[in-house]
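Appendix B. Raw example, untouched.
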Amino acid sequence: MNRPHRRITACVLAAAAMTLAGCSQQWGWYVVNPATPSGLTNLKFLIGGLQQTVLLSLTAISISVVAGLAIALPGLAPSRLLRGFNRVFVEVVRAVPILVLILWVYYGMPQIMNVSINVFWAGVIALALSDSAFEAEIFRAGIQSIDKGQYEAAHSVSLNYRDTMWFVILPQAIRRILPALGNQLVYMLKMSSLVSVIGMQELTRKANELVVTEYRPLEIYTVLVLEYLVLILLVSAGVRWLERRLQADQGS
């Protein structure tokens, strides 16, 4: 590195150090400092929403996968009526923003159906309903990607349609769509933060409540970002491990 470049680098480092030094005087990391009693209490309060976030996301994604498969199959049927049902459902549900759907389920469904629904199940229903349309398209694309020879081979050994799908087509399709399903789980984890608007005590709601009491949004929301980052990285690593496991089983 020549002398001018060294001078530029030194100036940039000096400016960055001065900026950080000035910001550090304004930042209040004490509010989330685990070395202090109040900071440790605040961190425990923030992490307390983790269980609800994970439970909400896993419940919603489990329902949406089953519903998505059930919606995808009519889209593959020879009947134009069934294919029309699939197309209308997918297009209508995908057109509604998740936040709007959450509000409608929580405030509108009890009036229409005359039922009582808590914030957890309102979030589950809204997230699962929204995600089921995307899951349906993922399953449809995965099933259509299987070679027709697989159907012919199943038919040659006298397998009916249900057994063909369950034992021959779906196992192969799931291997192909697993990355997409993993992406939807990550997407579900992120979208679960929107359920905070109806009062569910998940990660984002906990952070919002702490900001109101501590008046330190930068520090608290930074911890919130790190919580979601760690959670999603763990989920992504788990999905990649499952992919490798399925590929190894297929190879053996």
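End of appendix B.
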